[in-house]
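Structure in, sequence out. Go:
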C-alpha cells in the first residue's frame, strides 16, 4: 500500500468512526426517549439526522475518490467496498433512530401507557449488537462479527413477545390501541436496527475473510451458553 493510499484510508476510517459514534448516540437517545417518555431527547435525535446525511455523502465521495485515484486491489479494494456498505447501514440506522424518536414523541401523549417489560432488554441486546459490530470492524475480527449474527435471533424473539403482548393489551382495552400501535412500530424499528448491525457484521466477515455470508446464518446460531439455557 502506498503512503498516500494508507493516509487516505486512515482518514476514511476516522470519518466512519465519527459517524458510528453519532449514530450510536442517536440510537441511545431515541430508545431513552421512548422508554422514559423524554420528548426533548427525541427532538435531539431528529435534529441530528441532517448531520448524518451530510457525513454519509462525504464518506461515499471519499471512497469514490480513493477508487479513482489509487485504483486499489485485493484487500484494499475490499476495505473500501466494506466502508461504503457500512456507511449506508449507518445512515439507515440514523433514519430508524428518527422513526423511534417520532414514536417516542407520540408516546409522550400517553404517559400512563404500560410499556412492555421485555422492551428494555430488547433494546440492550440491540445496542450490544451495534457495539460488538463496531468492535469487530475496528479489530478486523471475523469471529466477533459472527457472534453479532448469532445474537440477532434473541432480538427477534423479544420483538415477537412484545408484539404478542401489545396485541393482547389492545384486545383487553381498546382505549390503548393508539399508544400500543406506536409502541408496536417502535419495537419493529429497534428490531430493524439490530438487523442492520447484523449486516455490518456480514460486511466485516467479507472484509476479513473475503466470504459473503448472507443467507448462511445457520452456522452462527447462539450456543446454549449464549442464550442462557442449561
Amino acid at each position: 500500500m502506498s503512503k498516500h493510499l494508507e493516509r487516505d484510508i486512515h482518514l476514511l476510517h476516522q470519518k466512519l468512526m465519527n459517524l458510528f459514534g453519532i449514530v450510536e448516540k442517536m440510537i441511545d437517545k431515541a430508545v431513552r426517549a421512548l422508554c422514559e417518555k423524554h420528548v426533548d431527547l427525541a427532538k435531539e435525535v431528529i435534529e441530528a439526522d441532517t448531520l448524518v446525511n451530510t457525513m454519509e455523502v462525504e464518506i461515499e465521495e471519499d471512497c469514490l475518490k480513493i477508487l479513482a485515484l489509487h485504483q486499489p486491489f485485493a484487500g484494499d479494494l475490499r476495505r473500501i467496498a466494506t466502508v461504503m456498505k457500512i456507511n449506508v447501514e449507518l445512515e439507515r440506522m440514523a433514519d430508524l433512530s428518527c422513526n423511534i424518536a417520532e414514536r417516542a414523541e407520540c408516546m409522550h401523549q400517553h404517559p400512563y401507557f404500560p410499556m412492555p417489560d421485555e422492551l428494555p432488554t430488547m433494546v440492550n441486546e440491540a445496542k450490544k449488537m451495534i457495539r460488538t459490530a463496531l468492535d469487530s470492524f475496528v479489530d478486523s475480527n471475523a469471529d466477533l462479527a459472527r457472534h453479532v449474527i448469532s445474537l440477532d435471533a434473541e432480538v427477534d424473539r423479544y420483538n415477537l413477545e412484545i408484539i404478542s403482548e401489545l396485541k393482547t393489551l389492545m384486545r383487553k382495552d381498546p382505549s390503548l390501541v393508539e399508544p400500543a400501535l406506536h409502541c408496536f412500530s417502535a419495537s419493529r424499528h429497534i428490531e430493524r436496527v439490530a438487523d442492520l448491525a447484523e449486516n455490518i457484521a456480514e460486511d466485516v466477515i467479507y472484509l476479513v475473510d473475503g466470504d459473503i455470508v448472507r443467507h448462511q446464518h445457520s452456522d452462527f446460531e447462539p450456543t446454549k451458553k449464549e442464550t442462557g439455557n442449561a
